[in-house]
Write a structure and sequence with these properties.
By secondary structure, the chain is of the alpha/beta class. It is built from seven helices and seven strands. The protein has one domain: Flavodoxin domain (Rossmann fold, 3-Layer(aba) Sandwich).
Length: 174
């Protein structure tokens, strides 16, 4: 299974990128492509910009990445209860090219944050809207208190949280 895995953040130390890649690594036999949002340079979406210049090539490249993989593992960064600005902008541009951004691909949708809610607000929003945008949502998982529950070398250190994530990855594999 070819998996596209990424965190919806442009931080070079993104905890959501770490979680997405870790989750993808738990899927046996998977070939994982790590997508980095920092590689997508886009103007802020506006109808005027689209009319003047069309959909940027980087938005098209993002869609091609999704379409060329069998599944998506995405971990959402939560900024003030919503998507990060960079992810939302890329998502908006991509939807102007293809309304079903997620192309019917099976998806494991994740979130984490330093706080106890683990990005639960943004995860709930995406869980509600991503299926309308073409995601075949197989499972969701939120890791609370990232720095208390994750080690860069070992992954998730809390056995209960690890079991929750393993259950989610098994649903993507099925």
């Amino acid at each position: 299974m070819k998996i596209l895995a990424f965190g919806a953040s442009t931080s070079s130390q993104s905890i959501n990128r770490k979680l997405a890649l870790y989750a993808a690594s738990l899927i046996s036999g998977a070939s994982v492509t790590a997508l980095d949002l920092r590689e997508y340079k886009l103007p802020i979406y506006s109808a005027d910009e689209e009319e003047a210049n069309g959909v940027p090539n980087d938005a098209k490249k993002f869609l091609e990445q999704i379409q060329s993989h069998d599944a998506v593992v995405l971990s959402l960064a939560e900024h003030n209860g919503s998507y990060s600005a960079a992810f939302k902008n890329l998502y908006d541009w991509a939807s102007r090219q293809e309304q079903k951004v997620w192309a019917g691909k099976p998806m494991l949708l994740l979130a984490t944050s330093p706080g106890g809610r683990g990005g639960a607000t943004v995860l709930a929003t995406a869980k509600e809207t991503f299926p309308r945008m073409g995601a075949d949502l197989k499972a969701t998982y939120s890791l609370p208190s990232f720095y208390d529950n994750f080690d860069d070398k070992k992954g998730i250190t809390d056995s209960m949280q690890l079991e929750f994530l393993r259950n989610a990855t098994e649903k993507l594999e099925a």
